[in-house]
Amino acid sequence: MAYQIISNITTKNIPMAERLYREIGESIKQEIAKSSLKIGDKLPTERVYAELFGVSRTLVREAFIMLEIEELIEVRKGSGSYLKNNLSLKTSHKVSDVGPFELLQARQEIESSIAACAAPVITKQDLQKLQDILDIESAELETVEKANDADRDFHLSIAQATQNTVLLDTATRLWDMRDGNPMWKKLHARIQDTSYHDQWLDDHKKVLIQLRKRNAEGARQAMWQHLENVKQTLFKLSDTDAPDFDGYLFAQPHN
Amino acid sequence: MAYQIISNITTKNIPMAERLYREIGESIKQEIAKSSLKIGDKLPTERVYAELFGVSRTLVREAFIMLEIEELIEVRKGSGSYLKNNLSLKTSHKVSDVGPFELLQARQEIESSIAACAAPVITKQDLQKLQDILDIESAELETVEKANDADRDFHLSIAQATQNTVLLDTATRLWDMRDGNPMWKKLHARIQDTSYHDQWLDDHKKVLIQLRKRNAEGARQAMWQHLENVKQTLFKLSDTDAPDFDGYLFAQPHN
DNA sequence: AACATAATTTTGGCATACCAATATTCAAAT
DNA sequence: ATTTGAATATTGGTATGCCAAAATTATGTT
Question: Burial letters for B209-248: b for 16+ Cβ neighbours within 10 Å, e otherwise?
Fold first, then answer.
């Protein structure tokens, strides 16, 4: 049967045994990109794609659900499926493809703005929560994982404090990119037994102080400096003995 | 044709009967919440849920795909499905849920930073492209759609010029949120016959001038002012006669 | 008792078949 | 010629059944 051949080929070419519906979904995205459909336009039917890819309609249907959850299409019973959003970058960039330093640069710019936005509107509850996280960071340095969780929690809590869901969403996305990035994990693993954590903890304290004062520009500067420190530290680490990171060091600190 | 209009109205105002798999998916989320499973724990099998909800396994399977796309669970063939993330911290919003002004605020902060990042590293080709887009914007004001496309193109080209994929990815995401937002479409539709476009075109020119000078802070300020103008304009428009926008006007300009 | 391995069960993967809602076509009535 | 409405076709919705991978259990060997 034809679909078995396809299945075998794909499982050979792609290392990770992805679920087939994902492949179909990605293929459909490519087809959409090629045909350059406009928002609102009607997509080919499930049956058409099924025949095109040589799979059952069930799989195409599952792929459609994936695209629907991603808010790329809208499915209407008895009518068809329609383009809802531009697919743009949703397909092209995998988290594993971004360099740690371009991610850091983006975080430096965006998170310092977020800190500035949070300062005027932050609540006492938010400030207390940040203090609690700082206490955890001060006391508990057991595992790298725990420290990382607290770190993430601190930064995202500030984003939460802006009361702007878009900013929170953006920050969360950046941290997801970070935590899912293999290169960053490698870099991060090297820091676990150094004293850089103390430096960063101190940075966090400075940020919180500015937030307490509701000083927007002070918070922006404190967060910017914190991420500058992180950037410098990681740059040194990658500079000393890391031939592995060749090609991932674009967008290095340039200040 | 008359029924088309009716069809459009119903699809916009009256939420289409949700697809069953969504209901099942939400129910499963509730079940997970009740049973308070930990990350990594194994979920009940598809067959169990099928019997529990009195539906076929196909539907449960589709619901599982939904949860998998939402990165809430992980599905392993022959083994089972496992909790991947805690649903309490799930901050995934629908684009349609964000208010135009919180989106604008986020864009103002992030895009002005992006402009600043682009200034030192922008290439001559990028500058030429921006000039071309400006020419298009100056000449061709035929349709709102075309103008919007050019606008998007201008802003995203600057993000592209940063040579930072994360920043480009972020900016693209923000514009996708904008273009997919029904409230923004309503607001935007009101501007089509005003002269605000000239104002914004002038803003764009100012941004380009700063980019040409490779003046980071100048570009940041120009972009910030541009989006400030947009914010003010849209705020006036929504203020005058727009009872529809109640509840969407949080995160208003506060400068 | 231990380990290895074969048989069995469990579990998700995928396809087929039929159902229901929507859209289209076409013929009959005016 | 237009309108109406029933017949038909199209399209997504759902259920059932069988397949393959993984996990488990049973069994045999040392």
Answer: ebbbeebbebbbbbbbebbbebbebbbebbeeeeeebeeb
Long-range CB contacts for residues B158-161, cutoff 8 Å, separation at least 24: B158/B111, B158/B114, B158/B115, B158/B118, B158/B130, B158/B207, B158/B211, B158/B223, B159/B111, B159/B114, B159/B118, B160/B126, B161/B118, B161/B121, B161/B122, B161/B123, B161/B126, B161/B211
Whether residues A173 and B170 touch (CB distance < 8 A) is answered with yes
* Fold match, B2-89 / B95-245: no
Domain boundaries, chain A: 2-90, 95-245
Q: Which residue of A has its CA nearest to B104?
A: A166
The CATH classification of domain B95-245, taken from the options 1.20.120.530, 1.10.1660.10, 1.10.1200.10, 3.30.360.10? 1.20.120.530
B16 touches strand D (CB under 7 A): no
Per-residue pLDDT of chain B (255 residues; tens, 9 = 90+): 222 222 222 223 334 457 888 889 889 898 888 887 887 889 999 999 999 888 899 999 999 999 998 888 899 988 899 988 766 444 445 555 678 889 999 999 999 999 999 999 999 999 999 999 999 988 866 666 778 888 999 999 999 999 999 999 899 889 988 876 767 777 777 766 556 778 889 999 999 999 999 999 999 999 999 999 999 888 877 755 444 443 333 333 333
Which of A109, A163, A177 has the CB atom closest to B117's CB atom?
A: A109
Q: Establish whether the CB of A28 is closer than 7 Å to any nucleic acid atom in strand D.
A: no
Reported pTM = 0.67
> To 10 degrees, what angle do helices B196-212 and B124-139 make?
160
Domain A2-90's class? Answer: mainly alpha
- Give the residue carrying structure tokens 């990658």: A238
Alpha carbons B226 and B62: distance in angstroms, whole number: 45
Selected residue of A89, A166, A231 to mutate for chain B interface (largest B Cβ count, 10 A)? A166
Query: In a mutagenesis test of the A interface, which of B169, B172, B173, B175 is the best target, namely the one with the most A β-carbons within 10 Å?
Result: B169
φ, ψ of residue A95 in degrees (nearest 5): -55, -35
Give CATH for domain B2-89: 1.10.10.10
Q: What ipTM was reported for this prediction? A: 0.63
